[in-house]
Design brief:
single chain; 283 residues; alpha/beta; UDP-N-acetylmuramoyl-L-alanine:D-glutamate ligase; 9-stranded mixed β-sheet; 10 helices; 36% helix
């Protein structure tokens, strides 16, 4: 028997290999890694850690391999006090992400999905979602997202670039059930085919109560049927932006669940993301 959680996070868990490079390699070029950092990562792990650190009872729904990486992820999530009842192992290897960060903070990312690519929503996952207060979806396949969203009482959705690229025709059923939708400017544009602000306003008119749009160095904006709230970014020393978007969304959601108003939630999300980019990795 599992313990019920406030937020069930559905998404990927990976091993992240993050390197600092002076520049990205071109064809047939070799570039030295100035630093190399290995950590647990993936959108589900990153989001769940922020939620748990902010006092929200959290569990993860994901798939890992029956290998070193899977054991490490399971152990690290448990050590952090995150529910692992729906972290299931498969014969496929654990997903891995290889991230190069240059001197300007730009990233080049290569992903091996591994066990994540074989995710199938099981009855136990559906029950886990129905028994939680909120389902937070981040970094998962469209078919899984559409099915999982049907079982959520409250839906928080951070689609990322991959899911956003499917566009509104594919995602409209999920988006219509979404209570909080998190997008950066590129994702908003590719999802709606509009400029980010116009796209956010269009999504509100579709019935989404809260559209949270991150604006990079300009901070973030929250669109609701009644108003637009903005929050400036927090000045910080950027080491690595891996997981910053996951942290931002999870911090907003945690603040919302703690009863803070929308402006406080937005300010806390910006602050948490600024603290995240000061360190290596998202977990």
């Amino acid at each position: 028997m599992y313990k019920r959680v406030d937020v069930a996070v559905l998404g990927t868990c990976n091993l992240d290999f993050i390197s600092r490079v002076s520049r990205f390699a071109g064809p047939d070029e070799e570039v030295n890694m100035d630093q190399l950092h290995q950590s647990v990562g993936g959108s589900a792990a990153n989001s769940a850690l922020t939620l748990k650190d902010m006092g929200i009872k959290t569990g993860v729904i994901t798939r890992v391999g029956e290998d070193y990486g899977g054991n490490l992820i399971f152990s690290r999530l448990n050590d952090a006090g995150i529910g692992t009842e729906r972290v299931l192992a498969r014969e496929e290897p654990t997903g891995m992400t290889f991230i190069a960060v240059d001197d300007q903070g730009e990233r080049s990312i290569y992903v091996h999905m591994g066990a994540n690519a074989h995710f199938e929503l099981l009855n136990g996952d559906k029950t886990y979602i129905r028994d939680s207060k909120v389902l937070h979806i981040t970094g998962m396949y469209w078919e899984v997202v559409e099915e999982a969203s049907q079982h959520a009482h409250t839906l928080s959705f951070n689609p990322g670039m991959l899911l956003s690229s499917f566009g509104l025709p594919k995602l409209k059923n999920t988006i219509k059930q979404t209570d909080m939708l998190f997008l950066n400017q590129k994702e908003a544009k590719i999802l709606t085919g509009m400029e980010p602000s116009a796209g956010a306003e269009f999504l509100v008119k579709m019935g989404v109560p809260r559209i949270i749009l991150t604006l990079g160095r300009e901070g973030a904006a929250l669109y609701t049927p009644d108003e637009i709230i903005t929050s400036p970014s927090v000045e910080t020393m950027v080491t690595d932006t891996t997981g910053a978007g996951d942290t931002f969304a999870a911090a907003f959601l945690a603040s919302h669940l703690q009863g803070k108003d929308d402006e406080e939630c937005l300010n806390q999300a910006n602050l948490s993301a600024s603290q995240q980019v000061e360190k290596w990795g998202g977990f």
